[in-house]
Structures are given as structure tokens and as C-alpha cells.
Amino acid sequence: MNTTQDHIPIKDIVDDMVLLKTGGGALVLQVSAVNFGLLSEREQLGIIVSFAQMLNSLSFSIQIMIHSKRLNISSYLNLLDKAQQTQTNTLLSKMMVNYRLFIQTLIKEREVLDKKFYVVIPLFKLELGLITSRETLRQKIKTTLLPRRDQVIRQLARAGLKATQLTSDKLTELFFDIYNEASFAPIHSRQTQPATLKSPQVVKTPKKEPPPSMPPPITRPSISKTHPFVVEELEEG
Prior knowledge:
2 domains; single chain
């Protein structure tokens, strides 16, 4: 009987290394991110040159991977609810309600993603040669990949990027997220306005017809929904 594991190239994860079914192995480094657009032109040029020097210095192959995952901020919204319930200042409590509605609107209109960057250092079966036992394979992979890991970490540090090797637990968690994409329940809007705050009542006044001798009144354009001070409540799902 075929299982899902038959289609996964990973054989095992031991000693912070990934052992492949093809006979090779790999190390995975998590690399910090840098906001390239906020840097000055000189700093941007320095990062580009340092990264190019790193690529030119490599005598082995690497793989750059970006893992994007939908960000779940349910815990953050719960934290806002608790803070709003304990807030005694009426004005601050109302501001927190509006801020929570703003976050809900932002998540509903745009998909918020958490991006993580990795560098994979593989070792193929042809580079290992003839291996007689599993223990010999592990030692051979470790002896070959550790110097490559140190070289990549050193070269990335010159570009202002910090790289750390993923442990066995982190590798297991990463591959679990990749092969089992988590689905988060949609965040429903609910009224969190305290009872002490009363919504203003709108009083409708009858329209008066202007006299014939007067010019027609000038109507002001309606405020756009994109106005920064207008908060739009979400419909309950």
C-alpha cells in the first residue's frame, strides 16, 4: 500500500542534518532578512557586492528557499480584547476598538504573510562515493558539509546577514509546515464596544427648498471610504 511518505524525498533527520532517500544529505540555514529599500544607495551597493563575492567564492551548489506562510494573528486580537476590557479610560477604550476593527479590515482585504528565508547546502550521492554503513554515511555528510556551512555563514555575515543552522526539531517543524499547510479559521468581526459608549443618534431634519431667487445650494462631496479617519465595521460572518 502506497503512503504519502513514499513521495517525500526525506529519509530521516538526525544530528541536525537531512538524510535523503537518494543517498545524499543536506544542511539548512535560516537567514535573517534586511529591508533593502530603506538602505542608502551606498549600503545597497555594499550588500550587492558582498553577496556577489559570496556566490563567486563557492565551489559547491546551494539552494535559496523562501517559505511564505499565512500569518495567524488571532492571539494578537485576543490580547487586544483583554487590554480593551481592562481599560478604564473611555477615550482610550474607544480608540482600541477602532484599532481592532482596522486590523480586521486589513486582514480581510489583504493576505498577511510571514516570510522566512533559508539556504540549503546539499551533498549529492556522487560526491560521497561508496558508503558501506549508515554510520559512515552520517560521518561523511557531517565532515563534508560542516566546512561548507561555516564558509556560507561567514560570507553571509559580510553582507550583513545572520545565518544559523536549523536543529533537528526546527527541521521537523519546517518540513511539517511545508507538507501540511495549516489552514486557519477566518477571523469574524464582532462588536467589542463597551456598554458605556453609546452610538450617536442621527436626527433627520426635513429638507428645505431654497427660494427661487437664491442660487442652488452647493453640495459637498461625500467623504470617501478610504479616508484615514473613517473606520468601517465588518459584517458578521
